[in-house]
């Protein structure tokens, strides 16, 4: 009675995602060590707090790398859909660490608004230029990434680039005008922007975890399109969700005429759904006046 269909169009992008995340991880970890030394050398609390923040980033990147690798595994008896959703765990942990890091940055920056500290501005300028280059390279590497995990990681690194731009601008102003207050002001502004982005990313993660319909996916649009197929009388009990923000799964009940060629009908329905980014579909067929026998079936 039911038909199954799926294809594997995203395996390449997932492997690519793993490479991107591993590169970002090693870049971040190496740079964190340089930052700690540089922060002590320049007596800059901003750079030291950024180093701690980057240490958190490295941890998250490591987790994201692990979960992205895990999500490439095939299905088994325990995880019958495979491990794609494991990358969501990485994106979730990433976002949480980003929130904690941002709160820490605010607790560091706000007191400095009241009592600005004098730091080695020249050393900060050198370190900031280096920071922009290193993190900028990592962002560029991840920019083409499409998975929510890669997006979460890119937000981390984008935050770091913006953080270093703030440090650079602040250090230049401190060097020439002794305006130490500029540094914490920029830090607060950037952290607010990052938190706004994290909110959007978390919304996407929870939409996937709670099995909401994929973004830009209109169920009301599906029914009329499938009804245009010859022999389809009605479409109901449509359920669509995403495994990881990319791989979409769907189940649908189609009411068809009694003399319908079922194999041809399933092929026609699948063909229509492929254009809508549905990778895996299960089709249940019913005849007119047949009770579908499932709870709330006809209401959906």
Describe the structure.
Belongs to the cation diffusion facilitator (CDF) transporter (TC 2.A.4) family. SLC30A subfamily. Pfam families: Cation_efflux, ZT_dimer. This is Cation transporter. The chain is an alpha+beta fold. Helices cover 63% and strands 11% of the residues. It has 2 domains: 208 residues, Up-down Bundle (Alpha-lytic protease prodomain-like), CATH 1.20.1510.10; 81 residues, Cation efflux protein, cytoplasmic domain (Alpha-Beta Plaits, 2-Layer Sandwich), CATH 3.30.70.1350. Helix 2 packs antiparallel against helix 5 and helix 4 runs antiparallel to helix 5. About 3% of the residues have low confidence.
Keywords:
single chain, 8 helices, 11% strand, alpha+beta, Alpha-lytic protease prodomain-like, 4-stranded mixed beta sheet, 300 residues, Alpha-Beta Plaits, elongated
* Basic shape: elongated
Low-confidence stretches: 5-12
Please tell me how large the radius of gyration is.
Answer: 25 Å
For the record, the count of structural domains works out to: 2
Helical fraction equals 55-70%
Distance between the termini: 20 Å
Q: Kindly report the spatial arrangement of strands forming the biggest sheet.
A: 1-4-3-2
Q: Kindly name the structural category.
A: alpha+beta
Report the sheet-strand fraction.
5-15%
Q: What is the overall pLDDT average?
A: 82
Number of strands: 4
Protein name: Cation transporter
GO molecular function: zinc ion transmembrane transporter activity
Domain Cation efflux protein cytoplasmic: 214-286
Transmembrane segments: 86-106, 121-140, 161-179, 185-202
């Amino acid at each position: 009675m039911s038909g199954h269909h799926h294809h594997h169009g995203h395996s390449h992008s997932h492997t690519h995602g793993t490479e991107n995340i591993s590169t970002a991880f090693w870049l971040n970890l190496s740079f964190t060590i340089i930052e700690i030394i540089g922060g002590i050398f320049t007596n800059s609390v901003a750079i030291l707090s950024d180093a701690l923040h980057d240490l958190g980033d490295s941890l998250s990147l490591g987790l994201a790398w692990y979960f992205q690798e895990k999500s490439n595994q095939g299905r088994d008896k325990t995880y019958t859909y495979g491990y794609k959703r494991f990358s969501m765990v990485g994106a979730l942990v990433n976002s949480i660490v980003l929130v904690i890091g941002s709160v820490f940055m605010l607790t560091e920056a706000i007191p400095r608004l009241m009592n600005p500290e004098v730091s080695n501005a020249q050393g900060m300028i050198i370190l900031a230029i280096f920071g922009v280059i290193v993190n900028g390279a990592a962002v560029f590497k991840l920019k083409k990434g499409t998975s929510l995990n890669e997006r979460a990681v890119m937000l981390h690194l984008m935050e770091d680039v913006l953080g270093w731009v703030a440090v650079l601008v602040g250090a230049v102003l401190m060097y020439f005008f002794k305006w130490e207050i500029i540094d914490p002001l920029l830090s607060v502004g950037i952290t607010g922007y990052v938190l706004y982005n994290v909110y959007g990313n978390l919304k996407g993660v929870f939409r996937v975890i709670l099995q909401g319909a994929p973004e830009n996916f209109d169920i009301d649009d599906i029914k009329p399109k499938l009804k245009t197929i010859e022999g389809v009388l009605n479409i109901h009990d449509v359920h669509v969700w995403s495994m990881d923000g990319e791989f979409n799964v769907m189940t649908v009940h189609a009411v068809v005429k009694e003399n319908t060629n079922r194999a041809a009908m399933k092929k026609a329905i699948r063909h229509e759904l492929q254009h809508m980014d549905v990778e895996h579909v299960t089709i249940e067929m019913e005849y007119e006046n047949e009770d579908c026998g499932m709870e709330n079936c006809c209401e959906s």
